[in-house]
Design a protein that fits this description.
Elements lengths: L15 H13 L4 H7 L1 H13 L5 E5 L5 H7 L4 E6 L9 H12 L5 E5 L12 E7 L8 H14 E12 L7 H12 L9 H11 L2 E8 L21 H13 L7 E7 L1
Parallel strand pairs: 1-2, 1-4, 2-3, 4-5
Antiparallel strand pairs: 5-7, 6-7
Helix pairs in contact: 2-3, 3-4, 6-8, 7-9
The structure holds S-adenosylmethionine.
The site of S-adenosylmethionine (SAM) has 22 residues, from helix 4.
């Protein structure tokens, strides 16, 4: 399982070796993968979102499922989860395997179907889902147009009265300078998308015909979308100084994540 879903040894990136050692120790103590996920920062935040929107019979489409963290949280609550992602696009080689393996270890593989497709092409019939969610994924879309394209597709596959939920880090929040600085640096390197403003997304949703479009921010002390990882610093090019400043700010901030921005809309 991805190291981010583990309880933190400490805030910030954990060297691979230390992580493997800690994982062995935790598993040897009899803790299950399921417990590990539920106790992690990422698992807790995905569960917090799933708790609000997923009931026993909710048919969920998780768009940009990545390694499946939100899909797993949904599968603890409902039997029908469709997890969609480009998979292995954008340098994410191996994520599909990781997704399948973790799903098996978590014991929820019977409840989740994986579909390889794009957010701008949702290959399902009209009204197939009660909930379409995209959780901390739009930052990895190729362009703002793709986000609009996703909204356009989402309304079609939702049933009448069904809900769309988009979660992202609230980068408009003036606090969390370190997180924002690191995000800005990653954007310049092309590793994340420069996000549209929340009000821009609200307008796009209304233009698509969604009703009841709402914005909400949730404060958590969870490291739900880690922004600093150990990586090959030669890839930074002329962004080295910016990286050092962002790293310093993150340390000063104690690696705190911004509030979670939740956008909800109804078909
Ligand atoms: C940060 S990860 C997703 C996190 C995940 N939802 C979770 O709960 O942890 C972002 C994912 O978006 C996917 N992605 C990027 N562009 C996409 C697109 N056009 N359609 C579907 N998935 C896309 C990437 O492949 C990546 O797996």
């Amino acid at each position: 399982m991805a190291n981010q879903a583990l309880p933190k040894l400490r805030k910030g990136p954990v060297p691979r070796e230390a992580f493997d050692k800690e994982l062995d120790r935790v598993l040897a103590s009899g803790v299950t993968w399921f417990e590990l996920f539920s106790g992690s920062d990422i698992g807790s935040e995905r569960s917090l979102i799933a708790d609000r929107f997923v009931a026993e019979d909710t048919r969920v489409l998780d768009v940009g499922c990545g390694r499946g963290f939100f899909s797993f949280a949904c599968a603890m609550r409902t039997e029908s989860v469709t997890a969609l992602d480009l998979m292995d696009g954008g340098g994410r080689t191996g994520w599909w395997d990781e997704f399948m393996k973790t799903s098996y270890l978590m014991g929820n593989s019977q409840r989740i179907s994986g579909v390889r497709s794009s957010a701008v092409f949702l290959p399902f019939g009209r009204g197939s889902f009660d909930l379409v969610a995209s959780i901390h994924a739009i930052r990895n879309f190729q362009s703002k147009d793709e986000i609009r394209g996703f909204f356009h597709e989402a309304i079609n596959v939702l049933k009448e009265g069904g809900r769309l939920v988009v979660a992202e880090s609230d980068l408009e929040c003036p606090l969390n300078a370190g997180y924002r600085a690191m995000y800005a640096m990653r954007t310049k390197l092309g590793w994340e998308l420069e996000l549209p403003t929340a009000s821009q997304m609200v307008r796009w949703l209304q233009d698509e015909g969604f009703a009841d479009v709402k914005l909400e921010t949730i404060e958590t002390d969870l490291d739900y979308a880690p922004i600093s990882f150990p990586f090959d610093e030669t890839k930074l090019g002329d962004m080295k100084q910016e990286y050092q400043i962002a790293t310093k700010l993150i340390r000063e901030d104690d690696n705190r994540s911004p509030p979670v921005l939740l956008i909800t809309a109804t078909r």
